[in-house]
Amino acid sequence: MEDRHKECLVKNRVFMCSEISLSTGLFANLTESGVITDDQLQKLQNIERNDTTKAAVLYFLTELLPKRGSKAFDLFLKALCESEQRHVAERLNKWLSDDCSEDAGTFERLQDELRTHYNDKLQFVYTMPWLPTEGFSLKETFVQRRLRLTSGDRKGTEVKMDEILASLAFAWSQPDEASENIKSFDLVILLHAGDLRGQDSVGGAIKEHLLPIDWDIPSRQLEKLLQEKNVLLIIDAFDEASKKNEIIHQLIEGKRLKHKPLLITSRPNFLENKQRHFESTFTVEGYDEEEQLKHVERYAKHQNIASAPFESMLEEESIIDLCSNPLNLTLLCLLREEDTQLRITRTALYTEIHRIIRRKAGERMDLTEAEVEESLLRPLYQFAFEAYQRNETVVREKDSKKVENFQRICQVGYLTNEVIISRLQKEVRFQFTHKTFVEFLTAKHIAEMDQEERLNWMQHLRYADYHIRIHGLAIDDDFNVEQNEAILGFIFGLLEEESAELTQMASLVIKETRFSSEPHHPLSLFVSPCDASHHQLLRLLAELNVVPQELADVICKRRPPLINIHDDCSVSCRRGMLKLCNLRFQPPIPMNVNLSYSLDEEEKMSFVQKLIKSESIDCSKIWIKPRDHTELWNDVRGWRIGQADSIQQVSIHCYRIEGNPCEKFSFGNHLSELELIHYEPSHSFLLEAALHKPLTSLQLICCHELDDRCISLIRQLLRNQRNLQRVQLTSFPWQQRFGFFLADFAQMENLQSLEIELIDSTDEEMRSLEAILKRNKLSELTIDSYYSGSLESVLNEGFHSMSSLRELHLRRVNIIHLPNLRHLDLINFSLLPPFIFSLRHSTLNDDGIAVLSDALRSWRNLQQLRIHFDEDEDVSVAECSLRKLFEAIAGCHRLQILYFDRLEMADSVVPSVCKMIESLKQLREFTSKDQRDESLTEEGFKQLEPIIKRNGLNTEFDRLSNKAGSEIISEYLGWNNVIPRAVVMVSNEQAKFNSFKLQVKSSDVSRILREDLWPEGVCIRQCYNRNKNKNMNNDITVHDNNGIDEAENTTRKTLYYNYGWYKYI
């Protein structure tokens, strides 16, 4: 029930007790509408019989009606009207509709009360658990933080530090000192997410947690002020109180206070399934060197001691990672005051802080440390474990009563208690000083379990991600394995000296995350997310000072065949990788490294150099994206690319390279792979530098139109390289024909992998391809065909003799004409979409499904399968054909990765999908992207949900709305070094093509308007806001139909929804 309705019942209680008649008609209406149950009816009748009618009415108004849900009040009014008591209903309605404009001074008093509250509560930050009264002045010690924009299409903010929000609210409470931005808000409301639990409105949470008890502002006035005034809502710690919290979800989804700015904070991974509701998301950057220095200087000033010891601490390389976190840096400063020994892991840091807390608690309470541990801390570990299981940092008094000596436990220093005097009753709550301490204490409890109990707890964790989005059903669910790592990391660190127990835990992680298998995702310069599950062991190893020999032996025995270091790998991933460098792998583990978007060049250079020097690591390939030709030169020279004892495979993104960085530019004499992305004729010096190197792989991806010089250099590389085994040639987009190179490929005796884009191929080119296929040397073949004549017949005939082929990827090739697919023995097959929509594309209809199903029955060694169904909404697949396809896939028992795009999944085929997945015991990754229809219902999803959430299965399952196109455009522009300020769909839902408005910086306008930036089929024009100076507003409108009239363009579809294309670009 709404607060205003409850207040109405309270304010009119005397009137109703004297006017309401508990007639048979009233009771009949109340029971029929469900306002009261039969048992409650009997209770009221007993009270009326044994006491008075007024007593029964009072009981009804106070104990029953307010607890009967949001519709109970209106149903009560209706029941009054239908039982000849309309005058009572009219009195209540009149009270609700009376002018509730604010009394003189109400708004000003509300501002004053909030500012007083923030000034009292937020002016000090308490970071020392053993000194709950020792606070740091927020104004004097707070260091301004950097926020990194991670998405520009969302509303709200995702950050990590509650101090930032406290500083905003505190700044608003000091109007003479606040910035103009924060002063512009009439009200700033700062609430913990837990404050909204059990509330009926935001106003109720404000009254209970922010305002004094003796100011009884009517709820309806408060709600009206929130609606009418310029209000900033700040909700802290979503991750700590998101469950059973309806109001916070309504705020995020725009169902309450929709037009008010909303700032939400959460730890990473908890807000992922809500990010589609946000206009912007940010991540708090870790302290840089300047901010670290400022932090320790302010700390020293607050403690009235010299800052020199803390400044010298910052120079220690072993704790650089810890110093980037403000809480950790504060704790390091506290330890520096105690002694000079440095702790280089998070576990070591918190363990030492814990020892200090235990020692000081013993001194205060006249107990030995052993007594503090046994009688106070171990019950606290259990208490923290139970709070963690409930995802709580604030616990209620009723929970504390279950713990013996709880008040003495609070005196240790980890818990603070506060008394909340609400309008109903006094409540005592206990709060842990920081969630990280909850995690540490929980880990202490688990570390003290016996091995079997601890292992049982770990086995119930999830070790695979899932991301499920079905917008039509409002299903939005995520899990990321990193959510468990705060606890697991502490446990690893705490058990470092217990070699056998640590090895047992690590063995479980190795098994559950398939650490010993091939990484899930190959590295790419375009899309390179960290493989969170596969890297979990690395992040846990980062918590160890030294890897025990017993554990090292297990890791060496169960070593992975390859490790990828991705651009967005965490600091812990990289620290763990350096731990592996100290192990003795024979032979060394191959490693690929993509740090192309790293901002700190010095740090990136140092990290890769350490990998190169390791004898246990074979740093095989590196991806680089130089910002200019100088950076290219520095990278190649700094990492000695191509040298015998360094990296010999390199991928270079050429987009921003202009001119030759040096006349003597060269690679080392052992360069074995050269991959060039967005290659242009001006980059010919890169091909020249590779001319006399022993290349085994040459790849030109998304290259622009080649001139005669480039073609000559490529031919020299193809003809002079006896060891060349892999070639890839693709253009951006369709700017270059490559078919004439097939004659050169036909002369290469060792060619094993070929990827080529064929456009309008000639008969001579097809004869060259036929010769390549019949030689039976290819193990991998990728063909992108665009009007290539007899290609399909050449492929089908060639499949008879291609017993060596193991990987086949087809784009815009119609498999209806490839029945000989069944003669192959493949481990990896992909039926891919075109990079951009065209009139010529592969058609996967019922006949195509039949051919594919027949082939799948013979591919018993298949490990990876990717199927992209047709973009054309007019091409559909019969359910019986889909069932046959799923049945054929179910027989591929070695399948590990299964990927569908634009699959039509109706309820009727869900049982077949479930049966398929259940039969694939080795499946570790299942993806169904962008389902085409709306026929999957909630009932169908309930059957599917437990199957796709199977532990050990990484799942991505979504059905996206059209609005997702704006995100795809943003990502595409980002790859081309343009960050749009906004991307907004402007076409309506009935349009046969989609239009978007882009807002970009003035400096990017000329780049956006370049025709060669956009794929074929895109129409772009510049437009201006009517009421603004056109030089000040750069809006670009993008259409996907190239300006063709809708009636003439029935075959074109929305360019930006083609996932295969945008991921590739």
General description of the model:
By secondary structure, the protein is an alpha/beta fold. Among the domains are: 3-97, Orthogonal Bundle (Death Domain, Fas), CATH 1.10.533; 105-285, P-loop containing nucleotide triphosphate hydrolases (Rossmann fold); 288-344; 366-448; 826-961, Leucine-rich repeat, LRR (right-handed beta-alpha superhelix), CATH 3.80.10.10; 964-1040. Helices cover 40% and strands 15% of the residues. The chain contains 43 helices and 31 strands. The strands form 6 sheets. It has a 17-stranded mixed β-sheet, covered by helices on one side. Helix 3 (24-32) runs antiparallel to helix 6 (72-82), helix 19 (346-365) packs across helix 20 (369-389) and helix 35 (763-774) runs parallel beside helix 36. The longest helix has 21 residues, at 369-389. It comes from Capitella teleta (Polychaete worm).
Tally of strands: 31
Tell me the name of the CATH homologous superfamily of the domain at 105-285: P-loop containing nucleotide triphosphate hydrolases
- Helices, by number, come to 43
Give the overall form: globular
CATH topology of the domain at 105-285: Rossmann fold
Strand content: 15-25%
Helix percentage range: 40-55%
N-end to C-end Cα span: 53 Å
Write down the CATH class of the domain at 105-285. Alpha Beta
Structural class: alpha/beta
Cα radius of gyration in angstroms: 33 Å
GO molecular function: ATP binding
Pfam families: CARD, NACHT
Keywords: ATP-binding, Cytoplasm, Immunity, Innate immunity, Nucleotide-binding
Organism: Capitella teleta
